[in-house]
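If your schedule permits, I should be very grateful for your opinion on a structural question. I would ask you to consider whether the tokens describe a fold that such a sequence might reasonably adopt. Thank you for your consideration; the sequence and its tokens are set out here.
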Amino acid sequence: MENNLIGYVARDTWLHRLSGTTKLICFLLISVIGMVTYDTRFLLALGGLSIYLFAASGIRYRDVALVLKFIVFFSVLNLVAVYLFAPEYGVTIYGTRHVLVEGIGRYTITQEQLFYECNLLIKYIVTIPPGLIFLFTTNPSELAASINRIGISYKIAYAVALALRYIPDIQDDFRTIAKAQQARGVELSKKAPLKQRITGNLAIAIPLIFSSLERIDHISAAMELRRFGKHKKRTWLKARPLQAKDFVAILLTGCIVLIGISLFFVNGGRFYNPF
């Protein structure tokens, strides 16, 4: 069986058993504090926690291999772009300049710039695993109920849930069309040259778009027939009440956030300066 790009995978782990509301709150809190702070010590601790949680979630590498490859590619691209456009930004932040390698013009390699970009790299490790955990351990219907529970309109919550449910369907359609193309003699496997594969996959986009539009029309018609959106509130089949373990998880996450905030006062700002 081929793996889906991204989506809920039912497994029996303690993370799966947490309420979707709990996972959403914890994910948002960890992401916010992880992106705001630049205390390397705190980020390393958060990174270790993220890796542990990812292992505890039971998500296999092959389940997220393609997604991780895209994330790694764009993360490295971002780090390179930061250096190209602001090679002295670390020097500006930390107020010192220790040159490691002399370059051409302003493109020198300094300890401060390397330290700053290492912090950016750790931030990716902090924020990406919790996002994958949240998506892979939360049923889309429960996700919609969770989004609605924190005060967001149920229409928006339902749209998010439908989008997540629709991703595997798009992948199935893509594979079906690709196999039909290959049956007609269009080689799209790794045996074909890269240019031919790109051209062939782009040709699949047109029938995929039409099939997607047809499916969207069917879903919209079905929702209209059921008078979706008439009432200001709605009930949820998959809504899960908060239990003791949910409150413990939220409390622990809140303590982590408070530690991160307290470090702002210890460091005199968001940045930890070892120089």
